[in-house]
Amino acid sequence: PGMAGIRLCLGWSTIATMILTQLTNGVAIGARKGLQWPSDRLRTTYSSCHVLPWRLTRAAFKNFVSYASRKDKSKTPSLHRLPRLFVEKNLSIGDYINFDSIQSNYLASVMRLKQGSYCLVFDGVNGEFQARIETADKRETTAVVERESRPPPVTPIGGPVLIFSPLKSKSRMQFLVEKATELGVGSLVPAKMRRTEVTKINVEKTRRHAVEAAEQCERLTVPIIHDMQDLSDILADWPPECPLFCCIERTTNEGLADEMLAHRDPTSKLSASFGLMVGPEGGYHDEERDTLMNHPAVISVSLGENILRAETAAIAGLSVMRMCGGVGDRKDGGG
């Protein structure tokens, strides 16, 4: 009814006009060639109609029909298709968000969102919200929080602590941080060991990689990124009642899964008190091995017979922990 009906009628009229035009052209061509009516001319007419751009006609018809029955664009699209961004502020319904320049460019230029479009935002504490774009510009985009899409996590940070030796390769270091975030790690603690080739890390850049991974994998939290510390300081501050599973190569220790299930508290659904440590490229120094074996919280474990690269060992260890229930699930915000 109304304008939609008029547009639909116009669409049918356009299609009919195109078909009649083709028929008329076919008859005219047959007349110019002196063909007999009706058989020869009809054959020519059919040949002319055969070149009718039927796909284009059908597409035009579908466009008119879909336009007539199109749903209101103001309705919210499916949540899993919306862009998702982390915001550095405590969010609640009704809040206004001023995205930074990088996020604004992503929303306005890359995703091409307009005023009235929707996106998802989370702050790592209060859950996930659906926000409506108020102004869309690649330099400054604003939005208003309309409703909650997922409740806050049970704990602010769910998941184990990963202690690792920073990698010299930037791409491999980024890969480790991203995959550890996706697997639900709670904290990343870079450790300076005897064979560590890196003297310092860029905490801000490392956190950006973790934020991007959290946005992509739909985590409700972002892991804590610590500054680089000496291994001795980390062990001195580690609570003796919290198990620290240390992956040591070339040992006859039990597997990580067996040890973790044996030491896991059956009354606890979370394991933020668990820790996983992987050594540097080249392995632990003999003195470091002795220090680790004498620490009351350290449990020496094996990841198999093969010698794994540092980032592979971290991902394998976190994957085993996830399978054993030692990494926070979606409702806990860990992944």
What is this entry, summarized?
This protein is α/β, with parallel strands linked by helices and 335 residues long. It has 10 helices and 12 strands. The chain has helices at 3-32, 39-50, 54-68, 101-110, 170-182, 203-217, 231-237, 256-263, 286-293, 310-323; strands at residues 84-86, 96-98, 118-122, 128-135, 142-150, 161-164, 187-192, 224-225, 229-230, 244-247, 275-278, 298-301.
Describe the structure in your own words:
- The protein has ten helices and twelve strands.
- With 335 residues, it is of the alpha/beta class.
- It folds into three domains: 66 residues, no CATH class; 72 residues, Ribosomal Protein L25, Chain P (Beta Barrel), CATH 2.40.240.20; 172 residues, SPOUT methyltransferase, trefoil knot domain (Alpha/beta knot).
- The strands form two sheets. Strands 6, 7, 8, 9, 10, 11 and 12 form a seven-stranded parallel β-sheet that branches. Strands 1-3-4-5-2 form a five-stranded mixed β-sheet.
- It is elongated and about 90 Å long.
- The chain starts with a helix and ends in a 12-residue tail after the last helix.
- About 9% of the residues have low confidence.
Keywords for this entry:
335 residues, Ribosomal Protein L25, Chain P, Alpha/beta knot, 7-stranded parallel β-sheet, 5-stranded mixed β-sheet, 10 helices, 39% helix, 16% strand, elongated, rRNA processing, 16S rRNA (uracil(1498)-N(3))-methyltransferase, transferase
